Amino acid sequence: MSKADIGLASPRTQVAHPASPKPGKAGREQRNLAGWLFALPWTVIFLVFMAFPIIVSLLLSFTDFGLANLQDPFSLHFIGIENYVKLVHDQVFLLAALNTLIVVVVGVPLNVILSLLVAIGLNRGVNYVRTIFRIGYYLPVVTSIVAIAVVWRFLLDPDTGLVNNLLHMIGITGPNWLGSITLALPSIIFVVVWHNIGSAMIIFLAGLQGIDPSLYEAAEMDGAGKFALFRNITLPMLRPTMLFVTVITSIGFLQVFQEPFVLTQGGPLNRTLTVGIYLYQQGFNFFNQGYASAMAYILFVAIVILAFVQFRLLRPQT
Amino acid sequence: MKLKNVFMLALLMLTMGSLAACGGGSSSGGSGNVTSANLTVWGMGAEGDSMKTVANDFMKQNPGIHVTVQSIPWANAHQKLLTAVAGTQTPDVSQMGTTWMTEFAKTGALDTTPSSIDQSAFFPSAWKTAVVNGTPYGVPWYVETRVLYYRTDIAQKAGITSPPKTWDDLLAAAQAMKQKGGSKYGIYLPSNDWQTFLPFVWQNSGKVFDNGSYTLNSPQVVQALSFYQNFFKDGLTPQVEPPSFDEVQTFDQGSTPMFFSGPWSAGLIKQEGGASMQGKWAIAPMPQKVTNTSFVGGSNMVVFKNSPNRAAAWKFVQYLSDPTVQTKWYNAVGDLPSVQSAWNSGTIASDKNLAIFHTQLGDAQGPPSTSKWEEAALAIDNDIQSVMLGKSSPDQAAQDMQQKATSIGVQ
């Protein structure tokens, strides 16, 4: 435990505090001004493109803003929490919420575990092979989602796809992956995880390389085995990284949109419809923006709750 | 994460658009004589690409008017048009799916058709798609209707000598082609496409919309659903098509020897199948129950009210509906002319297949003209699919459609 504490604290203690004399009042104001000037571009962009729309959409979620308001935005009506009440009774939304939940519950642990394993493998591997693998695992992250969709559609095609042809070779008749009610969502989760493993892997790699090698040396000298090293040094030292990756992945997976949108458009029978896609359909295909905003806020609250729980469970123990 | 950005951008455009709308002045419209203008025209899919040639011809005749054609994929078109209207960033002229007319007319963004355009030149069923509450908001550009495509060679092997004329014939033909014709399936019917399904309701003398409200739970709809379901129950059609499914490809391969589609498929069969498909397929009118009604669709050309060059815009639209330009357009793209006189000469008049489309246009219907139709249609698609996958009975699905469509509303 004490070793872990030292390891955690060491980067912070290395930052030396400048022993400058206390600045006077005028100096402090000048520094404040300079600070604000530096922060100004970001602040303006944040206020205009983030804060303002966020507030407007909160207000919209209490209105019936829709198609009729396209030309005449101010003829909307405030309808209180009607949109939220309607959402709770909307079968399609409930199914979309369930699908999204399944993606998070299954996909996030899968993504974290697999990317951690890949990162550990790459951290130990031979040097020049390592680079090739690192690129290989990271490539899906930077590939255009449309290209990914086209390729996976071909791979998962029930008759001509590579996956089913390989299964055929070992005597199995492959299913209709994306067209089956039971298999469509698992297939989507697989593609989502495959698509996102690279970014989590990079973060884990950085975390692994930040672990002080002397910890391992000391433990080895005490006779610790490979598994004990992993269990008692790697995992505890990676705790902050793990928290970060889990939170970021969960936020991303709760908003899952691209993969099912390009691969199945939510079908068959809405089995791959996620909250993100349903929100998009309502907001932009049908222009029920009040209703879509209400949905966005429910999603927002879900994200906040999930992130809060994860911070509670995974925060560094002292 | 991307989604959030799109959402916020749209909101921003919305607010900015409303501000701009307050300050903007209106400019002259109508169709007088225009000598110079810059026009932006939105075309969809393949038509958007080919329209550039037509626009060049138009510019040669009207040197002062410059036309810029922007091609938009069909999949994005509806949403892009909505966003454009919301942000008052509309083009001058746009192609518009006939099923969207009511929705966009009701936003107030479309200009009414000037009286100088002669409505009697068009097919009455096509002109009807441009009329909302008695006012025309555009001009039919091309029409399409659905017919039965079938493989003559496989039919022959299955002992079928003439194309199916009735519902019973259709089912029997699909069974024979699967059992005796040696193909994997008998037909391709999509499991969730209202455009393929609604003709069966109409053929059964049913209606989906009557007197201002939906009538989706009528016995005629239930019967149509259970007839359509037969093909799925008996394995005569693929259960759920994978996203990569291409009905023309499987038609050429012979695994789905029949399907319903519009005129564009004829071109695709020739293009994808090449010489090996020659003489192996034909088209036939819709099968009959009470009637043999088909679906009528196509595209209209609309002019936006915001356009500063409305006169020039209408001039371009009028040029597109000229019979000779329509004939040329058919020759280039294969879209069926919406102007009746364009059918009287050249290849269009002599082609045997086109005669079938021409006849079918005489008995074809469009979807109900309600601004919420697209939203109701999505719910209907899902209920159709739920029957086809055996998750609900035709009766349950019809009740569900009716309930969902009614709660979505009409407006």
Structural class of chain B: alpha+beta
> Which sheet architecture does the biggest sheet of chain B show?
7 strands, mixed
Number of helices of chain A: 14
**CA-to-CA gap between the ends of chain A?**
9 Å
**Global Rg of chain A:** 25 Å
Largest sheet of chain A: none
What shape does the CA trace of chain A take? globular
Q: What's the average pLDDT of chain A?
A: 86
Biggest interface between chains? A-B, 50 and 44 residues
The outline of chain B comes out as globular
Annotation, overall tally of beta strands of chain A:
0
Descriptive key words:
heterodimer; A: 318 residues; mainly alpha; 14 helices; globular; B: 411 residues; seven-stranded mixed sheet; three-stranded antiparallel sheet
Polypeptide structure, described:
- Chain A is an all-alpha fold and 318 residues long.
- Chain A is built from 14 helices and no strands.
- Chain A has helices at residues 2-14, 25-60, 82-88, 91-124, 127-142, 145-155, 162-169, 184-209, 213-221, 226-237, 239-254, 258-263, 275-285, 289-314.
- The longest helix of chain A is centred in the N-terminal third of the chain and has 36 residues, at 25-60.
- The radius of gyration of chain A is 25 Å and the shape is globular.
- The termini of chain A are close together.
- The model of chain A is unreliable at 1-16 (pLDDT under 50).
- In chain B, 47% of the residues lie in helices and 15% in strands.
- With 411 residues, chain B is an alpha+beta fold.
- In chain B, helix 2 crosses helix 13, helix 9 packs across helix 17 and helix 16 (373-388) runs antiparallel to helix 17 (394-408).
- Chain B has helices spanning 2-23, 45-61, 74-86, 101-107, 124-129, 152-157, 167-179, 194-203, 219-233, 247-253, 264-273, 310-320, 323-333, 346-350, 352-361, 373-388, 394-408; strands at residues 37-44, 65-72, 93-97, 131-132, 135-136, 139-145, 147-151, 209-210, 213-214, 258-261, 281-284, 294-303, 336-337, 364-365.
- Chain B is globular.
- The longest helix of chain B is centred in the first third of the chain and has 22 residues, at 2-23.
- Chain B contains 17 helices and 14 strands.
- At the A-B interface, helix 2 and helix 13 of A face helix 1, helix 3, helix 4 and helix 16 of B.
